[in-house]
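Request from the bench team (R.T.):
"We need a structural guess for the complex before ordering more zinc ion. Sequence and SMILES attached. Just send the tokens back."

Command: build protein-zinc ion structure.
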Amino acid sequence: MQIYNTLSRKKETFVPMEPGKVKMYTCGPTVYHFAHIGNLRSYIMEDVLEKHFRYSGYDVTRVMNITDVGHLSSDGDTGEDKMLKGAKREQKSVMDIARFYTDAFFADCQALNIKRPDVVEPATNCIDDYIHIIQTLIEKGYAYRAGGNIYFDTAKLDQYYVFNDFDAEDLAVGVREGVEEDSNKRNKNDFVLWFTQSKFEDQALKWDSPWGVGYPGWHIECSGISMKYLGEGLDIHCGGIDNAFPHHTNEIAQSEAFLGHKWCNYWFHILHLNTSSGKMSKSKGEFLTVSLLKEKGYDPLVYRFFCLQSHYRKSLVFSWENLDNAAAAFHKLIARIAGLKEGGAVEEDAFAALKEKFLAALDNDLNTSMAVTVLYDVLKAGCSDATKLAAIASFDEVLGLDLIQKAAELRKKNASQSASSAGGYTVTGEGDPAIDALLLQRYEAKKARNFAEADRIRDELKAQGIEIADARDGVSWKRV
Ligand SMILES: [Zn+2]
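Reply to R.T.: structure attached below.
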């Protein structure tokens, strides 16, 4: 597979450290609020990447953290603690907030067919692991104590800005975020590994450490959790592009300083979801959540389809109109699949050729829009319907759009709406011609004022468990 690596700024052939195995890490959500659909775009694309690895025969182990401590409103360790902010907003404890929004996140994932990673670890579960790393960093001279907190010293690295060509001047974190700068830092982009001098006196989660009672900084959790479950080397690390700096930059700094060698080989970053007014955020404009999509009558998988239609390395513009277009295309696609005849033989050669095309699309830096195009190619192909259905079912293992299931539901719905009619009188039911015929007989009997016969037919149907409802110009029936 060819994949774009943010670290080298070019497409590379993906070669895992151990043949056949992929160690994959994903930055999880900070569980202080609902995820917006922009956040979820990243998780959808990471899910497709994971499923593509599995589909290609790799044995994948994927780990994700849940941030339930230490993440301040600025990624540069300043501003308000996000978890405390959530707790205050809802007058609940931090633990309750964490539990509620973790569940909400996985409910969203389920609605979007995002597989749960093999390991999901709340940050608060691994405090000892962070303490061990921080202690080692202090011993190695990469971390220092100032004002009670422990900071990572970015000046000790040969190269700190691994993802970009920024220099310290461009990245005046305190100025950029419009909040006060931390005067304890030796260098502007030094970051907190352990807080003891919290300005948040009501910080509920605190642990004992060699440097005093406190709590970990945000960045250390991903290094700690990744190494705990995936060891000293990582094949691929994923996240939204806004995590590249400072979060992922800091993860690399501390992990490699701790390990003394390279930590992660490939960095997979997903571009933003924008609205017409810019990057989507929780505080700006409409708060777009999966629940809101559902309230407005959209199938959440329409949003997944919308994301798959574009490449993960391009910004995607969300508007209701764009989503409507995706919905129309998605429902049309399902209707075409529902029109394929089930049963019959799968033509192996034709199936293999289609699969090769599908794999080629995704092997080219996860080109999902091309993979969706291959779905349409399947529908147009000259092979049997059974072959087409087999190919679509197979591709959907990666795409996760429930195509076969939705087509079956549509077929059933269409059948139940198939109606028989005679002389302006319509019978609507579950698609059983024998029942429809009896109801038409009953209509003829009533028209001929043969009420005894009409009642006999009604009773006969009742005995079969058929419930009928007369309307002005017809009748509908259902099995009860
Ligand atoms: Zn992370």
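Two things stood out. The longest strand covers residues 59-66. The two ends are 53 Å apart (CA to CA).
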